[in-house]
Amino acid sequence: MEKSLSGGRFLLVTVLNVVITIFELVGGLFSGSLSLLSDAFHNLGDAFSVVLSYAAHRIGGRRQTRNNTYGYRRVEILTALLNAGVLVIISLVLAGEAVRRLLHPEPVKGDIMLLVAVVSFLANLFSTVLLNHGAKHNLNIRATYLHLLSDALASVGVIVGAVLITVWQISWVDPLITILVAGYIVYESWPIIKQTFGILMEASPKLDYDAIAHDLCQLPEVEGVHHIHAWLIDENNIVFSVHVNMDDLPLSKIEPIYRQIEALLCHKYGVNHVTIQAECRRGQDEDLFYDQNDWRHD
Fold it and tell me: Which of 108, 250, 256 is nearest to 178 (CA)?
């Protein structure tokens, strides 16, 4: 495991979020600030998210088995979907409460709110720095990183609101900030939900399939390509299968062509695992993509 994704860092981030949660809950209750309470619940979700993320990261690193021949990487995708989904639900609930507060304003103690928000911002900022590197290459860590980043941004909003409330006594700023932060979190979470759902539904990765077919047909002995299938194990690992038409060749001459196909797909298109089915005339006139109505011919 990379140093940036070590158990020590995950543990430190978890402890930080638990401490921040308790601090903000107490501060929110004493100050009457909904945005502080919402930030506290976000931090509680962060702590839960970090624990889930670390467990999924460890499970996802396990080797393939007879029961899971592609390994356990999908665990991280499921966790990313769960984390992003929970974040959206929490945001919508808090936004609903914020609307109620806008209609029925309640007094807020800006000085307590400001102190708690500043401390929370610094702690959240430190947590995002700890997970920053891993978020660039891992969807699961990215979902957790988004939790932490959203709380850091929420704390900035709370700080601004606390200043406005302290100086001008504008209490409606507090629920307004809650709504704005909730909207931002939903906006940022949606791409993760969409991407993870697509992976779980075996959606095809974004590849230029016509270009792939053209490139393969330029290889020696390859006369045609059909029945392409491509899917993602996680956001980084593409699995690809293809039927290729060739002359009636012995296996010893087909294997070097297989290696050329694998090298082309790996280096030019980022494919990690390739399954190739060589055929002579079978499927020559069939489409590039498999049609389930043609299953009798497969």
Answer: 108
CB atoms within 10 A of CB 294: 12
Identify the sign of the CA torsion 66, 67, 69, 73. negative
User: Does the structure show a pLDDT above 70 at 1?
Assistant: no
Give backbone dihedrals phi and psi of 40, rounded to 5 degrees, phi first.
-65, -45
With a CB cutoff of 8 Å and minimum separation 6, the contacts of 174 are 33, 34, 35, 101, 108, 113, 161, 165
Alpha-carbon distance 111 to 214, whole Å?
67
- Confidence band, pLDDT 50/70/90 cuts, at residue 138: low
Residue 6, pLDDT score: 53
With beta carbons less than 8 A apart as the criterion, state whether 127 and 183 touch: no
Do 193 and 85 contact (CB within 8 A), yes or no?
Answer: yes
Which amino acid is it at 149?
L
* pTM (2 d.p.): 0.70
Q: Tokens for 211?
A: 């270009």
* Alpha carbon distances (Å) from 122 to 125, 153, 183, 188: 5, 11, 22, 21
Q: Using the 8-state DSSP alphabet, how is residue 182 labeled?
A: H
CA distance linking residue 61 with residue 269, whole number of Å: 24
Tell me the β-bridge partners of 273: 239
